[in-house]
Specification:
Blueprint lengths: L2 H15 L19 E4 L7 E5 L8 E6 L3 E10 L2 E8 L2 E9 L3 E3 L38
Length: 144
């Protein structure tokens, strides 16, 4: 039997042995809809939420988020007896890591509209008033 045929046979055997009810969305915790955004909440006064490189209280700390910060949910997981979520700062996507879910509360967040380059003022600097120290001829109007 080829390796591929053996893999297919094992997969078919597994599907035959798994009860049909075990594959329904009602009891599949991975199918749960998670919030898109969280707010950091429930910290002790003056404390920040630790962001870790992996989902563990002993994982390397790679950043901190203050109380009230809004973060993007990148996915949550049960690790041992605790829930951890991978999150990213909404203002700086490069700041991301794992945090204990007990400090994250679902929230709404309206992302700012991206800047439209066609909204930029027309003309050269000095013509639009962007540089008040230069007149329209390009000569400096600052005192010597």
């Amino acid at each position: 039997m080829t390796r591929r045929a053996a893999s297919v046979a094992v997969a078919m055997l597994f599907l035959a042995l798994v009860p049909a009810g075990a594959q329904t969305p009602e009891n599949d915790t991975t199918a749960a809809i998670e919030p898109e955004f969280f707010e950091v909440n429930g910290l002790s006064p003056g404390d920040d939420l630790n962001l870790r490189a992996n989902a563990s209280p002993t994982g390397m700390m790679i950043g901190r988020m203050p109380q009230g910060s809004v973060v993007r949910n990148l996915g949550c997981a049960e690790v041992g007896k605790h829930r951890w979520c991978k999150i990213a700062d909404v203002n700086k996507d490069s700041l991301q890591g794992w945090a204990a879910a007990r400090y994250l509360v679902e929230t709404q967040y309206d992302e700012p509209e991206p800047l439209d380059p066609t909204d930029a003022p027309e003309g050269e600097p000095g013509e639009t008033g962007d540089y008040p120290d230069i007149d329209n001829s390009g000569a400096s109007i600052l005192p010597d």
